[in-house]
Amino acid sequence: LFNKDLGQHILKNPLVAQGIVDKANLIGSDTVLEVGPGTGNLTVRILAQAKKVVAVEMDPRLAAELQKRVHGTDDQRRLHIMIGDFMKVQLPYFDVCISNTPYQISSPLVFKLLEHRPLFRCAILMFQREFALRLVAKPGDELYCRLSVNVQLYAKVDHIMKVGKNNFRPPPQVESSVVRLEPKNPPPPVDPKEFDGLLRILFTRKHKILSANFKQTGVLQMLEQNYRTYCSSNDLMMEDNFDIKSTILSILDSVGMADVRAAKCDMDDFLKKSS
Ligand code: SAM
To answer: Which atom of ligand 1 is nearest to the CA of 3?
Structure first.
């Protein structure tokens, strides 16, 4: 009946569904974006508290079922269903996002939300447990990774609820968790691509000291190439005796970060490095 490829696991426990919606602290004037409404177990509860819901559903069959569920009620004219792939649609204005997310698109979904403007107030999102724990992981935690730092750069992230697999039909293979995401407003003045590029290097071997990560030949070649491109596109001369390795190591030394490990660095450390 349900399409596994689309991650269709319907939330069947009404207490959990209501709990998720209540965590959003909706107000009567809110427009809510829902990703993957399925048969609408969250949608009808959101409609009871918000002004309007825009729901993006990829499966036309489920979209039709949801349409039928609200047909003839006051909810009907406050629900706008967009049929399509969330990753491909152009998002409308929304105040809050609530989603029992299709887990296949967890990571791109988070970044699509965080890149959207104007910024939303908060997002209440269900993910598979390990992904949720990565989102909230802090320096020193086993799951602390590039994703943790990239997301926490732009948002405050809290783990708010554990949800066991038997609350779904059919039950997924893994346990789930709900997180709350609150974008930092204004966002930090950092170029997301450059910052992510830096994190890629720092986290390739997160338990090694940072200077060791920068000594790998592949990394040095890439950085030297980038620096050459940067110089030529900005009409800058490269010094005759330019040596990428000693340049990088002296920068690391100057910010006191040559012998620390990414696994233990906090956001201020990473921002110090990126500047
Ligand atoms: N929200 C419902 C609930 O809580 O019972 C259903 C949740 S189910 C885990 C995920 C839903 O997302 C399914 O309805 C599925 O068809 C839909 N979906 C999967 N991939 C999608 C995508 N890329 N864009 C939009 N919807 C998608």
So the answer is: 16
- The answer, yes or no, to whether the previous bond of 186 is cis (omega within 30 of 0) is yes
Residue 99 C-alpha to ligand 1 middle, in angstroms? 8
C-alpha distances in Å from residue 241, one per residue of 234, 245, 259:
19, 12, 26
Give this complex's ipTM.
Answer: 0.98
The CA distances from residue 198 to 33, 86, 268, 275, in Å, are 32, 28, 14, 11
Q: What is the pLDDT of residues 57-88, one digit of tens each?
A: 999 999 999 999 999 999 999 999 999 999 99
| Cα 25 to middle of ligand 1, angstroms | 23
Q: What is the pLDDT of residues 3-28, one digit of tens each?
A: 878 889 999 999 999 999 999 999 99
Distance 72 CA to ligand 1 centre (A): 24
100 Cβ below 6 A of ligand 1: yes
